[in-house]
Amino acid sequence: MDFSSTIWVSFVQPGALWLLVILIPLWLLAWKLPKRLARVRFWSSLGLRTAALVALILALAGMQLKRPVSDVATIFLLDRSESITPEQQARAEQFVRDALLAKHPDDAAGVVLFGQNALVERPAELASALAPFGGVPLGARTNIGQAIEMGISLFPEDMNKRIVLLSDGGQNEGDAETASQLARARGVAISTVDLGASSVGEALVAGVTAPTTARAGQRIPLQVVVESTAAQLAHLRILDGDQVVAEQDAQLAAGTTVIRVEVAAGAVGTQRLRAELTAPQDTQPKNNAAEALVQLAGPPKVLIVEGSLDEGKPIQAALAASGIATDRADPSHFPADLASLSSYAGLVLVNVPASALPAGSQQQIASYVRDLGRGLVVVGGDQAYGIGGYAGTPLADALPVETDVRSQIEHPKVAIVYILDKSRSMQNCHCKGPNRETDTDRSYFKTGRMKLDIGKDAVLQSVAVLSPNDSVGIVTFDGEAKVRMEPQSGVTAEKVLQILSPIQPDGIDTNIGSGLQQAQDILRASDAKIKHAVLMTDGWGEGIDPVQVATSMRAEGITLSVVADGQGSSPALQQLADAGGGRYLPATDPEDIPRLFVGETNQTIGNYMVETPFVPKLGAQSPILSGITSMPQLYGYDATTPKQTATVALYGLNDEPLLAHWQYGLGRAVAWTSDAKGQWAKDWLGWAGFPAFAAQMVGWTLPATLGGAVTPDVRVESGALQIGATVAGDPATVIATLSGPDGSSQQVALAQSSPGRYEATQPLPQQGTYMITISAEQGGRALAPATAGVAVPYSAEYGLAQHNPALLSALATTTGGAALEAPAQAFAPRQGAARAMEISRWLVLLALCVLPLDVMLRRLLVSRPRFR
User: Whole-model pTM above 0.85?
Assistant: First the structure.
């Protein structure tokens, strides 16, 4: 390549140049001290020493010689989101191939494929050939900003930098404008190739508008907004759940068509109405449906979830006596999403272990109380609170008591041995069992961690809840078993971590029975009163019969519980747990395993329960105890401690909370740490005051009847989430809390658009059902909040308005790029980069050569006659 003749100097550590001030005292000393050399030799010696010192300081400062280069490194960003058709993808790929053939041999090229995420397909290389693409980014969104940031990270420092973005510009996630500012700061030009809009026929349901609330028996008017690329006849169906409640043919115009339909309101609760479109000119089925959620008003209803069959009956009967309507269900029938749960004004969990609740439901419960302002009552028992594995869960966050404390009551010594499967099936891929050679457990790919590593974390967290007197041991197995640690007390997490860290899932075979035998041998030698083993495996193996060993262990007083690791676990593990006299704990989500281990450890040590007869002691004044002057005795409760802002109305032994309540966000929560069955509260169930007590306990948590001061209006429109509210009276401060299907929440301030009307527009969130609670404040007085639901049926990626040439033009203008017409322009010469040549080693070598000359000049005396 041609180089400019301009060369300049730079320094890696310019601060080291301050050392040059050392030359000043050096010269002063040389000037002031007596001169013993001849004048010429003196100045020559001083010059040589100065040169050596300057060379060393410049080397220490990292002196470089720089010269400009014209080599270009181009990173191609190829849009592979689902708004890009196969034809557009092929055209973009051919553009890159043609550009590589036209580049100079010293130019470099890299490729990044992107959609919702960005993948490096090829780093910056000099080669001109382009291998077939192997990466497949997520296509449900378009995140141009992440692709730009990924491209910036691939550039060599000593080449001119250019990004070529091949896309339709349909950004619906991330911030490409901010990323372009970063590119400009790094000297990276972004040039663009507009792939244009899709030319295929398409029809979609852009949104469904319905009233936020209605009453049972009314007719609900719906407006279905349909977009189409061509005029055509389509068919529209409206479904309420699985039932078709309306359907009709509709003539679509090219553009937007609004279809009006009326349907009958259903029962009290949340009605989910779904509009489905069928059209002849349509290629993307994912955007052919949209939903609306309507809250059907009626008397408040409470959902009772019971841990065991009929445990919720006494609470249900007590509430019925007070006129409170209820539904009763087991944990497996917990509402599927927050919208379904919001049909109830209150939720009562009766002795429900955390592990029994479906995945994600705890986040929904926390959001249900905190963001929707609903009520929560948790009734204790032998499967709740600390013994139920609540510690560290979102459910525990909503409660007014801490559950991760240990009772001060003495408990017998416990020895627990953790048995971990370290065969290859404890990696991310299941490799055992019939027809499992290629079966991938997708749940583990979500975490990016090996199953054995999650098991190690589970052991560490379990050890933390043991007392110093309890003993813990560790056994691992694959084809054979190995005792990693004999049962010993006072074990620290640091010691366990040191033992577990080197263990890797490298065994070919799996012999569960050998692991159980080793655990049996070391527990047999323990003097602990309670001996228990916890096994983590997927259950696929052979060798010694594990059921036979578990039966033998149980005969010796050693119990065994089994944590089934992954959705592909062997069904025989249930039988193994039954034979061992312990519990079977299936983990469909790998991140549940640590919680299951901790819960099982708590179950074993049994010191989260206080089982002693006592009469409750009054605490702070509480409306829950209004009119109650005397109470029967109880026979036990779950040990907890109150949180800082909680109100404790009743105390058990050791001043531990028996009845506590607090405000949690917009809602209220109550903790009753005794049970509601014949174990601890048998005298209470027959007590005449129990119905009033139960009704006041649950009733205190229920939201007050709303006065209608805030009327919400939420809809999906034009590829965005439109949030509106009408507030009666004076201007107000209005905040909307957006609660997602994963339990997350986000607050959005609504701006006043007209008298009494407040609005905000948000980017369309991920697909799912969202609940939006709108709260308002007037003159320092909080108004009763209102809640509305909205369903986001599909990503904005599947809308028709994805082509955005204005964004592509803005990115090029910001960074000094251009819209490319020909592939060869991707490697057009650029200026600004420089290549550095390190000369520090040469400076050190110069100093080493100069110093001997200085010594010779000062010490070696040679007279002129002798020289002759």
Answer: no
